[in-house]
Amino acid sequence: MAILGGKWQLNILWQMSKQTDIRFNQLKREVKGITNVMLTRCLTTLVAYDLVQRTDFNTIPPHVVYRLTDKGRELVPFLNELNNWGKQNF
Q1: Could you tell me the domains of the chain?
Q2: What are 16-53's pLDDT values in tens digits?
Q3: Given the DSSP bridges, would you call strands 22-23 and 64-68 parallel, antiparallel or unpaired?
């Protein structure tokens, strides 16, 4: 559970749950206030825990997309509940 306890991980997963594939800069725009270094660290961790899949198309310029894995998609109902709770209570 520590993987989800950081400041950014839940927000990253929430933003990723809204679309199938997302690129790094698009995700950075959606996650307000996160730096490139922190987003890279978080994505690396989420990939290591098999919550996010990273696909590199080996092109120039680089083209990399991220998507939730099956395990990551299992979290979406919980993320929706957290979002609803937050809207009701804050």
Answers
A1: 8-89 (1.10.10.10)
A2: 999 999 999 999 999 999 999 999 999 999 999 999 99
A3: antiparallel
